[in-house]
């Protein structure tokens, strides 16, 4: 597959659906075991009885709809502005790798210092990409 600035964005989208699948593959059996009837739920807090291992995966799925939205918008901007050199593509791939690392840490282990490092590093990569985009627009 040829790597353009859009390819890391596609990879991030695919990863989001991997986490969606993992979330429901663990959440539905856990809900059955806890005898939670989704049709009778009134409050999200009724899910608090689920095991932490299940809740962490759902939390991460939600996280993938937060900061990565900035990444998606930035990648579209970079593509439209023609700022798609090797450095920017490399940074985009680094962002995706760091976000996948963050997901795996949160879902499998949830060691907060390691998770914070992955999140902070991905944020710094996103900031560098943004600064480079601004400089390229001047």
How would you summarize the topology of this molecule?
Layout: H1 6-33, H2 52-63, H3 68-81, H4 86-108, H5 112-137
Helix pairs in contact: 1-2, 1-4, 2-4, 3-5, 4-5
Q: How would you sum up this structure, described in words?
A:
By secondary structure, the protein is mainly alpha-helical. It has a single domain, classed as Membrane associated eicosanoid/glutathione metabolism-like domain (Four Helix Bundle (Hemerythrin (Met), subunit A), Up-down Bundle). It is built from five helices and no strands. The protein has helices at residues 6-33, 52-63, 68-81, 86-108, 112-137. It is elongated, with a radius of gyration of 18 Å. The mean pLDDT is 96.
Quick structural summary:
This protein is mostly helical.
Which structural traits does this protein have?
138 residues, 75% helix, 0% strand, elongated, 5 helices, mainly alpha, Four Helix Bundle (Hemerythrin (Met), subunit A)
Q: Which range does the strand content fall in?
A: under 5%
- CATH architectural grouping: Up-down Bundle
Order of helices and strands: HHHHH
Number of DSSP strand runs = 0
User: Could you estimate the helical fraction of the residues in percent?
Assistant: over 70%
Summarize the biggest pleated sheet.
none
Structural class: mainly alpha
Q: Give the overall silhouette.
A: elongated
Instruction: Indicate the radius of gyration in whole angstroms.
Output: 18 Å
Average pLDDT for all residues:
96
Helix count equals: 5
Spell out the CATH superfamily.
Membrane associated eicosanoid/glutathione metabolism-like domain
Low confidence ranges: none
Distance between the termini: 32 Å
The CATH topology assignment is: Four Helix Bundle (Hemerythrin (Met), subunit A)
């Amino acid at each position: 597959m040829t790597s353009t600035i859009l390819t890391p964005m596609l990879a991030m989208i695919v990863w989001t659906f991997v986490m969606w699948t993992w979330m429901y593959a663990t959440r539905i059996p856990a809900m059955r075991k806890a005898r939670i009837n989704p049709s009778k739920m009134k409050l999200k807090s009724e899910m608090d009885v689920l095991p932490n291992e299940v809740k962490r995966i759902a939390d991460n799925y939600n996280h993938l709809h937060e900061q990565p939205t900035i990444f998606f918008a930035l990648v579209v901007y970079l593509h439209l502005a023609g700022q798609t050199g090797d450095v920017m593509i490399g940074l985009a791939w680094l962002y995706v790798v760091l976000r996948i690392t963050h997901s795996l840490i949160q879902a499998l282990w949830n060691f907060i210092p390691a998770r914070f490092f992955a999140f902070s590093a991905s944020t710094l990569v996103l900031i560098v990409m943004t600064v480079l985009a601004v400089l390229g627009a001047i």
